[in-house]
Each structure stands twice: as structure tokens, then as C-alpha cells.
Design goal:
It contains 17 helices and 13 strands. With 410 residues, the protein is of the alpha/beta class. The strands form three sheets. A six-stranded mixed sheet has the order 8-9-10-11-13-12, with helices on one face. A five-stranded parallel sheet has the order 2-3-4-1-5, with helices on both faces. β3 (76-79), α5 and β4 form a beta-alpha-beta unit. The longest helix is centred in the middle third of the chain and has 20 residues, at 190-209.
């Protein structure tokens, strides 16, 4: 089993010198506590580790949080803190009394709920970071990672830190997914891993968020959503597949989003663009989970399957987003589609400009694809440099304003 260095690690070490409390949120089993334990070892920190998966510790934390923090004195790592939100008020008291930087390390899933609690109780006192599943840089690359930008100078540097991949190798990355337990070699049977993952997720997280949920029906719901990655979200279609009403499907999608199983890419729109579609597109954080749920038994079958294009788009979109999460930086991400079927797969809004991206499975995509970027000229925010991200093995360009970027450069 190998330990995979996380790109977020250096940022956490830096923040540990400034903040009394650091919270890492993210989906189940993405490596939150493992990352903290790695930092603990590197810093040679004498720190107690307690998990609220332990029912006795959880009961004490909920019923008598003051006593819990007397028994488990800082510096302390509290894992799965979402099970005892009562702790936040008492952590606030400890910080206000002068708790040293790095006193409280906290991890938990149910990211949106936790972030709301942390910002409500510990505003200005806590650093909140979101850890995604592994990125392709973490799995295959080397050196320091930086957020993906469409800047020629920055893009050229990525050749030294990222590992080249052919189409077959990329679909292996996509099929293998990005869960640390599998990629590290800790677990070898992929089907059993994902089956257990789904069972644990539904039994614990979903059942906690939806009282009395039909667990088998919810699993069918996730499977139906996985078959529609990269598509404009059609709640009615998913609901109809499973046999639930649209309102239930909408609530269940919100649970998937809150627990970071899926993300919704919102459409770009403003007052100058009147014919844009207002519905988001659906993506999963882990393409390996998608391949498992949609029953693709090998990378080769996936590469030639019905969702080959959509799962590749899902992979690219999520890898770009991960580069920002792993740098603890914000960026606005959109897509564009209008009622005239004009479309831009992804838009990065940064530094006061819109940077359009087209994602293609082709090695030699048509250069006129960048003509679609012109629709953004009507927007109130200026259009910046654009890119076609594709299977091209090396960096190239359409012109001085639009790059052709290999997927492995992300």
C-alpha cells in the first residue's frame, strides 16, 4: 500500500500556524483524517485523535461537550465532527480564551451542513477547507500543483508536473476512479469496495439526512443519476426512472450534492443574454463510482460505451475543479447553452474575464469549435483566452487567443 501525498497538505501546514481551528470537509473516505495524521507525523505533533464514529465518544460530545473537551484536551483531532455539532460553541469559547494556533483539527462529511455550522459558530476563528477525491496530479504527477488557468506560460509548466497519458490510459484513470482506498492499494476488489461504500453512505449519511428513506430506492436513484452525467439535469426523467415524484427527486439530489457525491455546474447567464437555458448540468466527483454504478466492467468497455464522451467530460470538469479545491482557492465555474443550441462546455470566470472551454474526445478537434466562444461576447463580463481540452498528446493552439490543451495537462 502506498501513501499518496495530497496537494492540500502544504496549505494546511501554513494555516496551522495562524488558526486555532481547521476543519476539513469532504465526502466519505476521501482521506480527510489520513491527511491530518500525515501532517501530525510530519510536524511530530503530540496530538490526541478521537473519532465520533465511536458511539460513547459521540454521546459524550453531544450531551456534555464541555466535559468532552476536558477529557480530550487540545491539541486534538476530532474525526466525523458532524455527529456532534454541539461542540462548536465550546470550541469557540476555548478559542476566545486564547487557544493556540493548531489546537483543534476537525474533519467531517456533510460539507454544506458543517460549513454552515462552522461559519455560524466560529466565524473568523476557523479555516474551512474542502478535500475532494484524488486528482490526476496527486495520483500520477509530481512536484507542486497549481490551479488550472488558460495562460500559456502557466500551462507550459504543467508538462513538468503532470504525467502523459494516451486515450487508453486516460480511460483507465477514469474507470479506476479517484478514491484513496482503491488507488493506494489498500483495497484490491473494486466491486466490493464500491458496493460497501454505497451501503455505508446510504446507511449513515443518507439515513441521517432523510428520515425513513427507502434505501434500495435511493440506490436506484443514484444509479439513474450516474447514467446521466454530463447532461443538462432532467429531474423528471430521473424521478420517472425510479418511480418517485419530482419533489422527492429534487430533495434527494440536494442530499447527493450536500454530501459531495455530485456537483451541479450552473449555467452562465446575465441580463444581456436572454435565451440561455437556466438548468444546471450534472457531474459526479468520482468517475470510478459512475463506472461501477453503470456496470462498465473494464476501461476498454467504458472507452467504447454509450457514456464514453460524457464520462470524459465529467472527468475533465472535475479535474479542473479539484485544482482549485486543492489550492484552497475559489473560482466561478459555469457552462453555457441557449435555446439556439449554442453551447460552451465550461467557463472559468476569473480575474474579471470569462474563459471558455470546449471538451472533446478527439485527438485532432476541429479548430472552428472555438467559434462557439463568440456567444460570450454579448456578456457584460469580457471574454478572455479560451481552450479546447482534448486527447491531443502535446500542447498546441488554434490561434494566439485559444489553446489546444491535452487532458493530462490538467
Amino acid at each position: 500500500m502506498r501513501y499518496i501525498q495530497r496537494d492540500l497538505k502544504s496549505k494546511i501546514i501554513e494555516l496551522n500556524k495562524e488558526y486555532s481551528a481547521i476543519l476539513i470537509t469532504g465526502a466519505r473516505q476521501v482521506g480527510k483524517s489520513t491527511l491530518f495524521n500525515d501532517i501530525k507525523d510530519e510536524l511530530k505533533s503530540e496530538r490526541e485523535v478521537v473519532t465520533l464514529d465511536d458511539l460513547e465518544d459521540r454521546a459524550l460530545a453531544k450531551n456534555d461537550p464541555a466535559m468532552f473537551l476536558q477529557i480530550h484536551e487540545p491539541p486534538v483531532l476530532i474525526d466525523e465532527v458532524q455527529y456532534a455539532p454541539e461542540l462548536f460553541s465550546y470550541i469557540k469559547i476555548a478559542i476566545d480564551k486564547g487557544a493556540a494556533p493548531g489546537s483543534f483539527w476537525l474533519t467531517g462529511s456533510q460539507s454544506f451542513k458543517l460549513m454552515d455550522l462552522a461559519q455560524e459558530s466560529l466565524a473568523g476563528r476557523i479555516a474551512v477547507l474542502r478535500l475532494p477525491t484524488l486528482s490526476q496530479h496527486e495520483i500520477c504527477g509530481k512536484g507542486n500543483a497549481t490551479p488550472f488557468t488558460i495562460d500559456l506560460g502557466e500551462i507550459k509548466k504543467r508538462k513538468e508536473t503532470h504525467a502523459p497519458a494516451s486515450m487508453q490510459e486516460l480511460y483507465e484513470r477514469i474507470w479506476n476512479g479517484s478514491m484513496p482506498g482503491l488507488i493506494s492499494g489498500r483495497f484490491s476488489d473494486r466491486d466490493i469496495y464500491y458496493s460497501s461504500y454505497m451501503q455505508t453512505y446510504i446507511e449513515r449519511d443518507v439515513s441521517d439526512l432523510i428520515q425513513g428513506v427507502d434505501k434500495l430506492l435511493f440506490q436506484d436513484f443514484i444509479r439513474s443519476a450516474a447514467a446521466r452525467i454530463g447532461e443538462v439535469l432532467n429531474i423528471h426523467s430521473i424521478a420517472n426512472d425510479v418511480g418517485i415524484n419530482d419533489d422527492t427527486a429534487k430533495r434527494w439530489l440536494q442530499v447527493l450534492e450536500k454530501s459531495e457525491i455530485i456537483t451541479l455546474l450552473r449555467p452562465y447567464s446575465n441580463n444581456a443574454l436572454h435565451r440561455t437555458i437556466k438548468t444546471p448540468k450534472l457531474y459526479f466527483f468520482d468517475t470510478g463510482l459512475v463506472a461501477y454504478l453503470t456496470k462498465y466492467s473494464s476501461p476498454e468497455i467504458l472507452e467504447n460505451g454509450a457514456i464514453a464522451g460524457h464520462i470524459l467530460e465529467n472527468y475533465v470538469v472535475m479535474e479542473i475543479i479539484k485544482t482549485y479545491k486543492n489550492a484552497a482557492k475559489d473560482c466561478l465555474f459555469w457552462y453555457y447553452r441557449d435555446k439556439d443550441s449554442k453551447e460552451v462546455d465550461m467557463i472559468l470566470e476569473s480575474n474579471g474575464a470569462l474563459h471558455p472551454i470546449e471538451i472533446k474526445r478527439s485527438v485532432n478537434p476541429r479548430t472552428e469549435l472555438v467559434d462557439a466562444f463568440n456567444v460570450l461576447d454579448k456578456a457584460t463580463t469580457p471574454r478572455g483566452a479560451g481552450a479546447i481540452i482534448c486527447m491531443r498528446p502535446e500542447l498546441s493552439a488554434v490561434d494566439s487567443y485559444n489553446l489546444i490543451i491535452p487532458i493530462w495537462y490538467i
